Amino acid sequence: MIELTNESMSKHTTFRTGGNAAKFVIPESVEELKAVIRKCKEDNEKYLVIGNGSNLLVSDRGFDGTVIQIADKLGRITVNAEEIYAEAGAMLSAVARVARDNSLTGMEFASGIPGSAGGAAYMNAGAYGGEMKDIITYVDVIVNNEFKRMTCEEMEFGYRHSAAMEQDMIVTGISIKLRYGDKDKITAEMSELSKKRVEKQPLEYPSAGSTFKRPTGHFAGKLIEDTGLRGYRVGDAMVSDKHCGFVVNVGNATSDDIYQLICDVKEKVYAKFGVELEPEVRLIGEFE
Ligand SMILES: Cc1cc2nc3c(=O)[nH]c(=O)nc-3n(C[C@H](O)[C@H](O)[C@H](O)COP(=O)(O)OP(=O)(O)OC[C@H]3O[C@@H](n4cnc5c(N)ncnc54)[C@H](O)[C@@H]3O)c2cc1C
């Protein structure tokens, strides 16, 4: 297991911001993962499990506990007919490639989401009309220091929500069910969706994807644009001028800059439209 101290979270988040984690560990097996969590609980130490850090805003004051990164050492992918089992650390893009190589259709929607299988299940990530809950059959978790297999129903998936959020579950792996299809069509669909992302999203800058959840009956990006906030800045944090739903780091933004920008956007959109925007990005640590 890799164990580091005072590790900058800016290296582990796609916003490229955040202070230090007092401890930063990368377990190489689910047993090691379970042991780390047990130890943190025994020592009464805070812990945070992360995947690829693509939906995180970590405070500039850091995280005063142990960050446990579930990465490629815990990222095996196995195929059994139409089912794929992915350990939590497998990137969705890698799972999607395996699906394509095995002529399995149904997860093209997720091929461009830059998260891990575990993070995607935790968040019920989705795009282009699909969500993880549509393909997940079960999720393996550690809860109360025990391994448990949760059915899709038990995970209580909703829009960017899962039971893992309330019940302190650590996802160790997911099983997804796809269908046999035409490999050329799957490949074409994935490249089409990837092209759309490149065209519409500011992928040239660090970000955490859509900053806000979609409010019922609206699109966050459209509300932000119609409030006149395209290109609005706090330091080097900016409402993307390519896609107003994204906050981007155009240089040396701090997490405080990004947080202040999020607060300003929320306030201004509420003042203009009376709609409460809620961050999709997970805030970690203290913000003022
Ligand atoms: C350019 C860009 C585009 C994006 N597009 C999309 C999109 O189309 N759709 C979408 O839904 N999201 C999108 N996102 C956001 C993000 O990729 C997803 O939310 C993704 O599922 C997060 O996975 P992660 O592994 O990076 O999780 P992290 O960011 O590391 O963590 C996110 C949350 O999940 C928890 N978590 C992570 N792994 C585990 C685990 N194994 N067990 C328990 N909890 C865990 C963390 O504690 C945290 O609360 C985008 C982000 C970027 C940067």
Quantity of strands, as a count: 19
* Approximate strand percentage: 25-35%
Helix content: 25-40%
By secondary-structure content and strand pairing, the structural class works out as alpha+beta
Bound molecules: flavin-adenine dinucleotide
**Poorly predicted spans:** none
Radius of gyration: 19 Å
Mean pLDDT metric: 97
- Number of discrete helical segments: 7
Oligomer: single chain
Shape: globular
The biggest beta sheet reads:
5 strands, antiparallel
Order of helices and strands: EEHEEEEEHEHEEEEHEEHEHEEEHE
How is the largest sheet built, in terms of strand order? Answer: 6-7-13-11-12
Q: Helices, strands, pairings?
A:
Blueprint: E1 2-8, E2 20-26, H1 30-42, E3 47-50, E4 56-58, E5 63-69, E6 77-80, E7 83-87, H2 92-101, E8 104-105, H3 117-123, E9 126-127, E10 130-131, E11 136-143, E12 146-151, H4 163-167, E13 170-177, E14 179-180, H5 183-200, E15 207-210, H6 220-226, E16 233-234, E17 237-239, E18 246-249, H7 255-273, E19 282-284
Parallel strand pairs: 2-5, 3-5, 4-19
Antiparallel strand pairs: 1-2, 6-7, 7-13, 8-14, 9-10, 11-12, 11-13, 15-18, 16-17, 17-18
The structure holds flavin-adenine dinucleotide (FAD).
